[in-house]
Amino acid sequence: MSALRPKLPVDPLTYDPSSLFRTGCISQQSLEQMSVQLDRARHNALAGIDGFQASDLPPQEPIPPACIDLPDRLLADYATRRHASELWKILGVARRLRETVDHIVVLGSGGSSLGAKALCEACAHPRHNDLSRGERGGRPRISFEGDRIDNDSAQGLLDVIAPATAGRTTDDVLERFAILVISPGAGTLPTAVATRLFLKALIDRVGGDRQRLAERVVAITSPASGLADLVRAIGCPDIFDLSGGVSHQIDSPFSVLTAAGLLPASIVGIDVVRILEGAVAMNCRFRESPVSLNPVLQYAGVASLAEVMLGAPLASLTLWTNRLNATRAWHDQLRCVSRTVEGKSMLATNLFVGQPRRDRLALPSLSPWVQNEDALHSLIGQTWPELLLADSQVSPVLNGPAATLCLPRLDEHALGQLLQMLMLAAVVKRQLVFHTSGPRTPEPCTEQRPSE
C-alpha cells in the first residue's frame, strides 16, 4: 500500500449565464457594461476587511465583509498556532463528542443552524441517521430542532433520544446524546425554549451528574449572550464565539464557516479542512480573476441586472439533487428576499453536480415481468447522471431560461467553493447598492422557511 495520500480533486465550479443572453432576458452587453462597477465593488469589499476587523464601531455596510477572509484566517491560524487555533478546538471537541455520544441535537433557528444542516446534508451519507453506529464509522446521528416552537416535532425527537421507557442513567454510548446550541446574541424564543426542554431531558439522562451534563452541552454564541451565561452556570467547558474571531458578530447565514457550521459537520465525519480549502480557492478566484471570468462578480452582476431590468430578484436555486435542499434553504436566508414577486417572472439558476459521489446507478430491465408499459425500455442501461443530463436539457424549455452553476462533484472542496461564492456575491451585490444609493436599512426578510 502506498504511504502517499492520494491527491484529492480541486476542480473549480463554473457559472454560465449564456442561456439568459440567448433568450434576451439579460444582455451580455449590459453585463459587460457593469464591469467597472463590479470591479469597484470587489475593491471596496476587499479594502473593507482590515478596517472592519479593527473597528469597534458598528459596520456601515449592510453586510459586513467579515466572511471574505474568514476561511483564510482559520487555516492560517491552524497552520501556525495549531493547538491554540480555533480550528484545532473545533476538531478536538468534535472528536470528543464522536467518542462519547451516539446522537447530536443541534438547536438553532433560521440561518444559525441551516448552514450546519447544509454541510451535513451535502457531504455526509445520504441516509446517515438510518445506519448503525458501525456503518457510520462510529460517528453520531445528528438532528436539528429549535427553528420553530413545534410541539410534535420536539416531542418526536425526545421519543428517539430520551424515551420515557429508558432508564435515567446509562453507560451505553448508544444511549447517550449531546446538545449543541447555536444562537446569536439576542437569540430567538424557539431556540431558547428548545434549549430548556432538551437540557431537562439531558439532566434526567445523566442522573443529575453535573460534570457529565457539562461535557454534553456545547454553545456557539456571543460571549455576552444569555446562552453563554446559561452554559457557564452549568459549567460547560466548550463555548465557541459566533463572531469567528472578528470584532463584530457575523450575521447568521454568513456563519456557516464558523464553528456554527464546522463543528456539527466535523462531528459526523465531514472533512471541514477541505471545506475551508474550497472556500479559500474561491477567495483566490474572487481576488484575482478578471470580471469576465469571475464567477462571484458574474453571478452578482446578473442578480443586479435581474432586479434593474426585470424588477424582480433571481429566483431560488433550481436543484437537480436532493442533497442540496438545505443549501438552497440556506441561500434563501442569505438572499433574505421572498421567492415570489407578484406579476414578475424571475430568472432561475440551475445548480448541477457533474459527478456523483457513489457508484453510478443504471436503469435496470424488468423482463420478463414487465415489458414496456412505462415506456422506458429504450433507456435500459443508461446511468442516473445520463438520465439527469437528458432531463435537464428538457426542463429549461418548460420552465424558462436559467443560468447554470455547476459543481464538478458534490464533495467538501466543491461545497466550500459554492458556499463562499454565494456569500461573496451577496457582499458584492450589497456593495453595489450601498455605494450607489448610500446606507439604507435592509428590508426585513420575507423568505418563508420550508417545513423540516
Number of helices: 16
The first-level CATH class name of the largest domain = Alpha Beta
Query: Element order, helices and strands?
Result: EHHHHHEHEHEHHEHEHHHEHEHEH
> For this structure, what is the CATH homologous superfamily of the largest domain?
Glucose-6-phosphate isomerase like protein, domain 1
Radius of gyration from the alpha-carbon trace, in angstroms: 23 Å
Major beta sheet, specifics? 5 strands, parallel
Number of domains: 2
Given the helix and strand composition, which structural class is it? alpha/beta
Strand order of the largest sheet: 3-2-4-5-6
Mean pLDDT: 84
Strand content: 5-15%
Number of strands: 9
Give me the CATH architecture of the largest domain, please: 3-Layer(aba) Sandwich
CATH topology of the largest domain, which one?
A: Rossmann fold
Ends: how far apart?
44 Å
Helix content: 40-55%
The dominant shape is globular
Low-confidence stretches: 54-60, 337-343, 437-452
